Amino acid sequence: MLLTRYQELLLEAGCDEAGRGCLAGPVFAAAVILPANFKHKLLNDSKQMKPADRDLLRKVIEEKAICYAVASVDNEEIDRINILNASFKAMHLALEKLSQVPEHILVDGNRFTPYGNIPHTCIIQGDGLYASIAAASVLAKTYRDEYMQQLHVTYPHFGWDTNMGYGTKHHRDAIREFGDTPYHRKSFRLLPEQLELDF
């Protein structure tokens, strides 16, 4: 069972992002403040959950959370400021949108840019340890997947309805055949370099 709190005294928000390693689309982040007694047997790191369970949990989290917010940073800004900074920016934007100001921030991962004067704690693989980070991972993932499925309607060749912009073989083969799109991250290596053969 996931831990509800890192500490007991301060109002705590969990933060996580989705889509950091993708070749296309924005990076999404969520911030969630859960009530102290929040528990759900399906809640886990969103990557470990079935899509149907993530969709179910999204509704539960949105209904039961004290407050939550989701934000994104698009591929053009990712190319300008790099993916790590874009991930932090998306988390900051989500925190800004919360209807209550947290007193402590729990962040999935090992690095974070401080948000104002609010203390934060980075937890490696925190989405599998703390409920608020897991809840943020579920929201970030489901909102991003939904966005990529909408883009898929316009760009069906790339399989974004299933690969969500990650660099699968199908996705890379489609880039080879059709070229990139306005949603691809130009600062990422979209295709592996071809080996030069000497004859």
From TrEMBL:
It catalyses: Endonucleolytic cleavage to 5'-phosphomonoester. Pfam families: RNase_HII. One of its GO terms (biological process) is mismatch repair. Keywords: Cytoplasm, Endonuclease, Hydrolase, Manganese, Metal-binding, Nuclease. PROSITE patterns: RNASE_H_2. Residues 10-199 form the RNase H type-2 domain. InterPro entries: RNase_HII (IPR022898), RNase_HII/HIII (IPR001352), RNase_HII/HIII_dom (IPR024567), RNaseH-like_sf (IPR012337), RNaseH_sf (IPR036397). It comes from the Bacteria. GO terms for cellular component: cytoplasm; ribonuclease H2 complex. SUPFAM superfamilies: Ribonuclease H-like. Its EC number is 3.1.26.4. It is an enzyme of class 3 (hydrolase). It is found in: Cytoplasm. GO terms for molecular function: manganese ion binding; RNA binding; RNA-DNA hybrid ribonuclease activity. Endonuclease that specifically degrades the RNA of RNA-DNA hybrids. Belongs to the RNase HII family. This is Ribonuclease HII. It comes from Chitinophaga jiangningensis.
